[in-house]
Amino acid sequence: MVVKKRCLLWDWTNSSGPGNPGVPWAMDQCNFNGPMSSVSNWNTWVPPELRGRAPYRPMVHLEAQLSGQDWNNVWNSDQPIVQYFNEPDKNGISPQTAADAWYRQMVPLRQQKSKKLVGPAISSDENGKNWLADFMGRIHDQPPDFLGLHYYGTDGNACIEYLKEMHSKYPQPIVVSEIASIDRNVGSVYNFTVQLANFMDETDWIFEYGFFGCMRNLADGFVSPDAQLMRPDGSFTDLMKKLQWDQPIVPPS
Question: How does pLDDT run across 27-46, given as a tens digit for each residue?
Fold first, then answer.
């Protein structure tokens, strides 16, 4: 039986828009009958090219998405799960500010719209851990349905230990909404991806995860170029093909 936990991180620039022709046709390469479970674009609007082929994960990325059209999109979404804040620990959002908005807007979203909520996806360093502990202490009577985490690194074993550590602290199922290797050795990148994908598929307290990222150009100099899931022309890399087709993933020979 196929385990569907892999979220497609579909960069918003892949969609067509004013001054941006995008590569919307590239989504037709996706196998939504395999391990892919959903699609996220770090925004509140559904990529038109998705065409209902998989669930969409709207995201309240930062404070700006708590008002205006973005918030209308979230409030009126027919999708079952909403993600809340992307690395607030690195974006100047305090745990108190996040908790205030949580009670003011996210809790009513759950109560009135029956949404499941993914808590703030924090970075995996000590600052991120401390931020999350502070936030969770402020919302103890209205905790998230899922624990949001990110992980970037080079050591698959260290990543697994981090996930186990966070699971031991918080009872919620985990959504690893961003994960990737930052190694500059292609073999190491593949080994990290294979090890973590297979581990998370087999682990019942991991609800969903997304490898970063399906985009034509590198977001920055941090993530390994060998971890890219899309080429500049919109075609998929070998790693992306493995993520959408193979389960378990077998390391390249």
Answer: 999 999 999 999 999 999 99
